[in-house]
Amino acid sequence: MKSIPVLLQQMSLLALVSAVLGVSAQVVLPNGIGLKTELTIVSSDSGQVSIPTLSINPNGNTESASNISLRGAFEAHENGTAIFIDARSPEEFQKGHIQAAINMPVHAFMDSMAFLENLDFGTPIITYCDGEDCNASIDLAADLKLMGFSQVVFFFGGWLEWQAAGYPIETGS
Question: What is the model's pTM?
């Protein structure tokens, strides 16, 4: 029977070898987890949060989705220069949404392909969800960028900020 010090030494060696192999694999593999995650600060009129840059720029190129302010979103709405896409659930959308918005829950993105394929890839799109506690608008914007849409921004202040400002809203589907 092995003594406890020898057993502890072997367990420590095994843990060290496992850690070295794991980190090495992540560095070498093309889609491994980076040792340092770059963060992007996203701000709204009511606060800010840090999110992984990969969330808004999954391609790693200069074509990342960016945030639009409440004022910028309102101007686009008033001028009719962008399509607003609500990334929340159909139930939340029916309770209230930005006037003329389209509901496209991020978890059902693939179900929206028929609609999206009929849009011009240069169409300005603004995605939104509940606000600062919801990243669905960021995820949806990234999916749309991956699909090839070139003018996609996310409105991080979202439904809560829009509603609080007293801007045009609707209920129903």
Answer: 0.70
